[in-house]
Design goal:
Layout (H helix, E strand, L loop, with lengths): L1 E8 L5 E8 L8 E4 L7 E2 L5 E2 L7 E8 L25
Antiparallel strand pairs: 1-2, 1-6, 2-3, 4-5
């Protein structure tokens, strides 16, 4: 069964992104869709996921079965070519 889950840090609340793959798969077999550009899945020596900001534990939230899995060959990461600012532009 292929499942989808959201990943977030139990310690600081950082939202890492989403994963999709067969239940019980190794990290390298999962499709990882990061929320923030450049984030990667990092595991400690015991194989537990760790937060890239605070090294807290990452746990999957809202694990749900997937009827139509994402095709790895057609996933691309968007790139921002210009700087992004908030507030009024003058």
């Amino acid at each position: 069964m292929i499942v989808h889950a959201e990943l977030s840090c139990m310690n600081c609340g950082y939202e890492l992104g989403d994963i999709e793959g067969e239940r019980g798969s190794r990290l390298d077999q999962l499709l990882f869709l990061p929320t923030h550009q450049g984030d990667t899945l990092e595991a400690d020596h015991r194989g537990r996921l760790r937060c890239p900001r605070c090294q807290g534990r990452i746990l999957p939230q809202g694990v749900t079965p997937v009827k139509r899995p994402i095709d790895r060959n057609h996933v691309s990461e968007p790139r921002i070519k210009q700087s992004v600012t908030r507030g009024l532009m003058w």
